Amino acid sequence: MIMTGETHIIHRLNLQFDVPDEKTGRLLQDDALRIIKNDVLPVIEEYLDKEWKHRESIRIPQMDVTLNNIHLDQFEEVFAELCIREFTEKMGTLLSKGLTDRESEHIPHESHTPDERQLEQFLFFIEHGRLPWWSVDEKDFPDEKDILKNPLLSKRKYRQWLTHLLIKTPHALNRLILQFSQKFTARLIHLSITGREPKKTDVPSLPEETKSAGIDAHREMYIRWMKNLNTAYPLVARQSIKPMPDEVGEQEKPIPDQQEVPEAGLFVNHAGLVLLHPFLEYYFKNCGLLVEKLFRDEDARATAIHLLYYLATGKNNPSEHELVFHKYLCGMDPELPLPRNNPLKQAMLDEADELLSAAIGHWKALKRTSSQGLREAFLERKGKLILDDFQHRLIIEGKAIDVLLSKLPWGYGVVKLPWLKQLLIVDWNH
Fold first, then answer.
1. Do 91 and 58 form a contact (C-beta atoms < 8 A)?
2. Is residue 138 within 8 Å of residue 86, measured between CB atoms?
3. Cα gap 290→130, rounded to integer Å
4. Cα–Cα distance between 75 and 184 in angstroms, integer?
5. Which residues in 174-315 belong to E strands, given as ranges?
6. In sequence order, what E strands does 178-276 have?
């Protein structure tokens, strides 16, 4: 759970019942989920809005709420009341102890300032290509100027964390090169190793060609520069980073206190793109991106990912953290870095507009809905993507307008695309 002055996020909710048989357990689970959604969470939100206003952000890795024995015939009447009472009592204990005790014996928690959240969000992004679950609003993702102004960037902990990522995680340095300007990348690397802003003579000369071309050459140049900085500033470097490895690909365990909390799924944007699945193969083929139903090459796959973003939003050149689901739909590992700038041909954009018009035309219930109306009503929907060995599943939040899905002339419960190895099971909560 994370709580800020304005937003509260429960990452995962687990229910466990001790009941006499499986049938009773299933019935209780359904009832409990309904009660929690309708009766418990609204009260908890109101409580936190009141008690946590103007406080700093905290993260609680786990909170256990244990209820005493409840008679089955009283479950509906008392379950919500007991949940709310136990939760508010635990939170009251945390409030009374203050937020400076990071390891309260009652509720382990971590306090985070806005500067800490900003920098940790950025570092998570360059490692994973997405935002952490506790990000309040992805529209607040910091730009280059905000990151360089962050006072914590000069602190040993964050310099060590950043340098560790750039050396030990190949995706991190590649993502920095592909997603950010050369000037920003050079300044950030210099700051992480030396603790100070670079002079013009400190920055290596880099080729002017596009970042997507020659990524390996760019990467090797930055690696050599980092090793030279490590040699030129031995006292500073010794305090902030470990020695540079001879092999860039060597793997180490993450810095212990910064390991990612295991996720129950990936939170994604534009989950409603699954509604367009019957059109995608034909569309990508018309754009010249497919050969025998597979992407021609990785450049074609990257173009397809950006086209999906255009289909969902009508915009172009997004930050990579907005493209998690788009990567998945195109068969790309969500952790792999992607170029930010991908100029799309006007013919491809025109074809995308025609695709949306065709979808609206077949979906008679939409009547005279515009392409932007389709985007806002269905395509720009948030969801949770669960990937495991058994199945891939997409859970999409429901809205009142979803009654129109019953009039959709094609199915969307199971999505199969020729370039994907697994079926995608879609659970649209409407």
1. no
2. no
3. 27
4. 58
5. 266-268, 290-291, 294-295
6. 266-268
Listed residue (128, 94, 136) closest to 111, CA to CA = 94
- Which residues lie below 8 Å from residue 338, measured CB to CB, with a gap of 6+? 129, 178, 179, 302, 305, 320, 323, 327, 332
Q: Are 87 and 13 in contact (CB under 8 A)?
A: no
Residue 197 pLDDT greater than 80, yes or no: no
Highest mean pLDDT among 74-78, 233-237, 289-293, 388-392: 289-293
Rounded Cα distance, 18 and 89, in Å: 23
pLDDT-derived band of residue 6, with 50, 70 and 90 as boundaries? low
Q: Mean pLDDT score of the chain, rounded to an integer?
A: 82
Nearest to 385 by CA among 296, 263, 286: 263
pLDDT tens across 363-407, in order?
Answer: 999 999 999 999 999 999 999 999 988 889 999 988 999 999 999
Do 280 and 359 touch, CB atoms closer than 8 A? no
The percent helix, strand, coil of the chain (3-state, each to 5) is 55, 10, 40
3-state secondary structure of 291: strand
- How many degrees, rounded to 5, is the angle at CA 32 between CA 28 and CA 33? 120
Q: Where are the domains of the chain?
A: 2-111, 114-258, 266-428
**Around Cβ 222, how many Cβ atoms within 10 Å?**
21
Phi, psi angles (nearest 5°) of residue 58: -130, 150
In terms of Cα–Cα distance, which of 233, 311, 307 is closest to 272? 311
233: helix, strand or coil: coil
Placement of tokens 């190949």 in the chain: 170
